[in-house]
Design a protein that fits this description.
Layout (H helix, E strand, L loop, with lengths): L7 H29 L8 H15 L3 E3 L2 E2 L6 H8 L10 H27 L7 H8 L1 H7 L5 H16 L5 H14 L7 H10 L4 H30 L5 H9 L8 H10 L6 H17 L3 H20 L14 H18 L4 H50 L5 E4 L3 H7 L2 E4 L15 H10 L4 E4 L12 E5 L4 H4 L6 E4 L2
Parallel strand pairs: 3-4, 3-5
Antiparallel strand pairs: 1-2, 5-7, 6-7
Helix pairs in contact: 1-4, 1-5, 1-16, 2-3, 2-17, 4-5, 4-6, 4-7, 4-15, 6-16, 7-8, 8-10, 9-14, 12-14, 13-14, 13-15, 14-15, 16-17
C-alpha cells in the first residue's frame, strides 16, 4: 500500500510539514480569539468536559456536580485525556487542551495522507492531502473547540486507514471501532464499513469466519467495558446525552427527511469542500468500476453518517460540529478522486492549464476559508466568554453555596460557579428528558425542586420565565450582533 513516502527522509519532511501546518492553523485560531475577546472555547459543552476532567483528576469522581455520579459526558475518553491537564495544577489547562486538539488534527491529516495515497496512487514527498486536512477550517475549528470532535475524526481516519491496509488486521480494526465508541457513541457506525469490507472480500468462508471472530474479539475488548461503565454510572447502557439531545430537538424531525439530509450534506461543502464534490463522486464511481470496496465503504459510510444525523439529530448549527468527524473522509476521497480526474485528462496544453487553474482555485478557497473560519471561531469564543462564562462568574460571586440553580447551559456554570444545578437540557438531570420541551411541566418541576434561580437566554423559552424578575443580564455585545439576546439570571422564588 502506498501511504506516506517510502523514503525515510521524505517521510520525515512530510511528517514535519503536517505537524507544523496543524499547529500553525490552531495557533492562528487561538490568537484571533484572544485578539477579539479572550482565549476560551466556542462551545459551552467544552466546559462540561473540563468539569468532568477536573473532578476526575482532583476527586477521583465521575461527576459533574461533586459527589453526584452522572453520565453527562458524551466522551469519557476525551474527559479522561483532559484530566491530565489538571494534574500539573492551574485553574484552566488551556495549553493542554489545545495541545491535544492540535495533535488530533495532525493525526487526522497524517492518516488522511496515507488514505489519500492509497486511492490517488501518488507517491510524492509533498503531502498535499495532509496539508489540506491540517488547514481545512471545519477541522481546525474542531481541534480548537475543546471538544472530542477532532479525536473522533482521528479515530474515524485510523479505522479507514486500517481497513485499506493489506493484509488487513481484523482484530485491530475491531479494536479501533470499540475504542471509538468511548470517544462518541456514534463510533458504533464504523461497524458498517468493517462489515461491508468483510462481506465483499475474496476468500474462503473459513477464512472469513476467522476474520469475523478476530474483529468481534477486538471490538468486544473495548465495547463491553463501555456498556458496563455507562450501566454503573447512570443505570443505562448509553450516556444521558444520547437520549437528551434527541429529545430536545425532536421537533426538527417534522421537516421532510430529504430536506434534513440535504442540510447535513451541505455542511462540508461550505468552503473548499464544494470543489471536491466532483472528485468524491468520481472516486466512488471508479471504486465501483474497479470493485474497490474500501473506498466505496468510506463513501457509503459518510453518506450514511449524515443520514443518521438527519434522522435522529437533524441540527446543523455551530458549523455542523456533529458531522465534523466524518468530514475528513469526504475530503480525502474527494482529493483522491480529483487526482484521478487530473491524471485521466489527455496530455495537452489545455489540460495542463486546467489542472493548474483548478489547483490554484482550490488553494485560494482553502486559504480564504481558513481565515474566514478563524473569524467565525473568534466570534464563537467571544459569545461563550461574554455570555456563559460571564454569567457563571456572576453566579459564583452573587449567590449562596446552598442555592439551587436551574439552567439550560450548564457547562461554564458547573466549572466556575460550583453550585447545585438542575440541567434543563437533561445531560446531568435525566429526569427532565421526558418533558424537556413542555414548559408547563418544567415550571411545576422547578417549583417542586424549590429552585432559587433560573439561568437561560430569554428567547430560548417562550413562557418558562414569565413573571420572574431578572437579577442579572450580561450586556455583552457579541451575542446581540449574532442575533441572540443576552443571557439572564432570573429570581425563581
Amino acid at each position: 500500500m502506498n501511504s506516506l513516502p517510502s523514503s525515510p527522509e521524505a517521510g520525515r519532511r512530510a511528517l514535519l510539514l503536517i505537524l507544523a501546518a496543524g499547529f500553525l492553523a490552531c495557533g492562528l485560531y487561538i490568537a484571533y480569539s484572544r485578539a477579539t475577546e479572550s482565549v476560551g472555547f466556542p462551545l459551552d459543552d467544552a466546559w462540561i468536559h473540563q468539569t468532568y476532567a477536573r473532578n476526575f483528576a482532583g476527586r477521583g469522581e465521575w461527576a459533574f456536580i461533586p459527589g453526584q455520579t452522572s453520565g453527562g459526558s458524551t466522551s469519557p475518553a476525551w474527559s479522561v485525556l483532559l484530566a491530565g491537564g489538571y494534574l500539573t495544577g492551574g485553574e484552566i489547562p488551556f495549553a493542554w487542551t489545545f495541545l491535544l486538539g492540535a495533535l488530533c488534527l495532525a493525526g487526522v491529516a497524517l492518516a488522511g495522507q496515507a488514505y489519500f495515497s492509497r486511492w490517488a496512487g501518488e507517491v510524492n514527498w509533498f503531502p498535499w492531502a495532509g496539508l489540506f486536512l491540517a488547514g481545512e477550517w471545519h477541522l481546525v475549528w474542531a481541534a480548537t473547540s475543546g471538544m472530542e470532535t477532532a479525536l473522533m475524526g482521528l479515530m474515524v481516519m485510523l479505522a479507514f486507514w486500517q481497513l485499506s491496509r493489506r493484509p488487513l488486521r481484523w482484530e485491530l480494526a475491531g479494536a479501533l471501532i470499540g475504542l471509538a465508541v468511548w470517544v462518541r457513541p456514534d463510533g458504533l457506525s464504523l461497524l458498517g464499513p468493517l462489515g461491508l469490507v468483510w462481506l465483499l472480500q475474496q476468500g474462503r468462508w473459513r477464512e472469513k469466519a476467522l476474520a469475523a471472530l478476530r474483529s468481534a474479539g477486538g471490538f468486544a475488548v473495548f465495547f463491553l467495558p463501555y456498556l458496563l461503565f455507562n450501566r454503573l454510572v447512570n443505570g443505562s447502557f448509553w450516556p444521558n446525552t444520547f437520549y437528551a439531545k434527541q429529545a430536545e430537538y425532536a421537533a426538527l424531525q417534522s421537516v421532510p427527511f430529504l430536506q434534513r439530509l440535504a442540510s447535513e450534506l451541505a455542511l462540508p461543502l461550505t468552503g473548499p469542500g464544494l470543489l471536491l464534490l466532483p472528485g468524491f463522486c468520481f472516486a466512488l464511481w471508479n471504486g465501483w468500476r474497479k470493485r474497490d470496496w474500501v473506498v466505496l465503504a468510506g463513501g457509503i459510510w459518510f453518506l450514511g453518517y449524515a443520514a443518521l444525523y438527519a434522522m435522529r439529530l437533524p441540527v446543523v448549527y455551530q458549523h455542523g460540529r456533529y458531522l465534523m468527524p466524518a468530514m475528513p473522509v469526504f475530503y480525502t476521497i474527494g482529493l483522491a478522486g480529483s487526482a484521478q480526474i487530473s491524471r485521466a485528462l489527455p496530455v495537452s496544453r489545455f489540460a495542463y492549464a486546467f489542472r493548474r487553474a483548478a489547483q490554484l482555485c482550490l488553494g485560494l478557497v482553502w486559504l480564504g476559508f481558513l481565515w474566514i473560519g478563524a473569524r467565525a471561531y473568534a466570534t464563537d469564543v467571544a459569545i461563550i466568554q461574554t455570555e456563559m462564562v460571564a454569567t457563571a462568574r456572576w453566579v459564583a460571586v452573587n449567590t449562596s453555596e446552598g442555592d439551587l440553580i436551574a439552567a439550560h447551559d450548564i457547562g461554564a456554570l458547573g466549572f466556575f460557579a460550583r453550585r447545585k444545578l438542575i440541567d434543563l437540557a437533561g445531560l446531568v438531570t435525566p429526569e427532565v428528558v421526558p418533558f424537556i420541551r413542555d414548559e408547563t411541566r418544567l415550571r411545576d418541576y422547578l417549583d417542586d425542586q424549590q429552585v432559587d434561580y433560573l439561568v437561560t437566554f430569554p428567547d430560548w423559552y417562550a413562557h418558562l420565565q414569565d413573571g420572574k424578575a431578572i437579577v442579572y443580564q450580561t450586556g455583552g455585545r457579541f451575542a446581540p450582533e449574532a442575533g441572540v439576546s443576552n443571557m439572564a439570571v432570573y429570581r425563581w422564588k
